[in-house]
Structure formats: C-alpha cells, structure tokens
Amino acid sequence: MIEHWPLLGLRLRTPRLELRLPDEDELAALADVAARGIHEPGRRPFLRPWTDVSPRDLAREVVQRHWRRRGGWTPLSWALELAVFREGDPIAVQDLWADNYATLREVATGSWLGLDHQGQGIGTEMRGAVLHLAFAGLGAEHARTASFVDNPAPLAVSRKLGYRPDGITRDVLHDRAVVSERLRLTRHDWDSRERPPVTIDGLDPCLEQFGVDPAITARPCVPEG
Q: What region holds the N-acetyltransferase domain (predicted)?
C-alpha cells in the first residue's frame, strides 16, 4: 500500500516517541485510549464535546475521523492525523493540517493525549515533532494553533515552543460564548532556538501529496518584522 499511499511510510521519531499513521488494529487501540478519557469528566477544554457522548460512541468517532481525513486528502486540502506511539503503544493523536499549502506555506496543529500519559512533557514532544516536519521537512513559514483561554496546558506548550499571541476567536459551546487564544509560530522564531532532535523517514515520496515542490524546503528563512 505504501506504493499507492506513500504517507503510510512516513515516520517521525523523537527521543521517546514515534509518530505515524496507524494500521487498523492500532487505530482500534487508539480509539480505546480515547474512550478511557482524554480529560477529566465535567471539563470542556475543546470545542468538540468529548465527554458528551458514551465511550463507545467516542471510540467510533475517533475511527471515523481518521478515515474521513485519509479519504478526503488532496494536495490542496490535507489533514495528517498521526498516531503517537510510546514503547510501541498508541497513546495520543497529533494533527497537522493545511489548505492551499503550496501558496500559503502555513499549517495548523491540534492534538489529544490519553489521561494516563499527561503531565510528562509528551504533549510538547509530539507537537515539536510535527513542527519539525512542517518547518524542516515541508518548508513552512507559519504554524498556528488555538486553545481556550482557561485551558493552560496547551497554551503553556505553545509558549514553550516559541509561539506568539495572534488574537482571539469567539465560538459557541453549549449555548454560551467561549474564547480561544490564537497563537502563531513563524519560521524565523522556529529557527532562532535549539530544538530537541527529531528524525523524519519516508518524506520524499509524500511531498507531492502535501502539494510541495521539493525545491521549497531549500528556500532560506526570511526574517519577519
């Protein structure tokens, strides 16, 4: 299948983690992780209401979301939903997505992490891995993210990785207004600090699927502001 869908051969590795597309058994195991919980009951740190459905329905949604993102992939609009493995077990999902990437060279990220694995620096490590893919592998100029203003953990991860404030977004969740803080990381800020090591394998055959000309990754960083 890698010959037909090269993304199946893409691997990101950090000192503790491997990020890649899961096979069907691993996807089922990942759905079980989500069903056991990704945040405390009663909290709503995401726009998606994770705790408003049964564990069974939540697990099914994890599987369907993964299939939708693979099936809807085009070079103009793509979403890479990577499973995060620690010591061979899937524990999280780290997303990287973009629209009109060839023109904008901008990506967005999102993630979730099983409750049993939180508070260990894994969220920072797995986001750092996909940012390395974006900036070092795909030649990105910008990465953006957003988190509720009362959800300090992902905001702390973003600041640790060098993101800067980029305004706010207001949405409706359960008939009330919620505010998210937007953050943005430029290539200049990414290049300006030391990062933990990340290795990428299997990227070259995937570049066309990302809408990337291989020459784009060699373009120099242009300082901003």
A: 17-186
In the block, which residue shows the tokens 């390395």?
132
**What does the pLDDT read at residue 224?**
38
Would residue 225 count as lying in a domain? no
Is 90 exceeded by the pLDDT of residue 68? yes
CATH number at residue 78: 3.40.630.30
Q: What's the domain count of the chain?
A: 1
Residue numbers of the domain that contains 148: 6-209
Ranges 81-85, 147-151, 157-161: which has the least confidence: 147-151
Indicate the helix (H) or strand (E) that contains 176: strand 176-186
- Asked whether residue 101 is domain-assigned, the answer is yes
* pTM for this prediction: 0.88
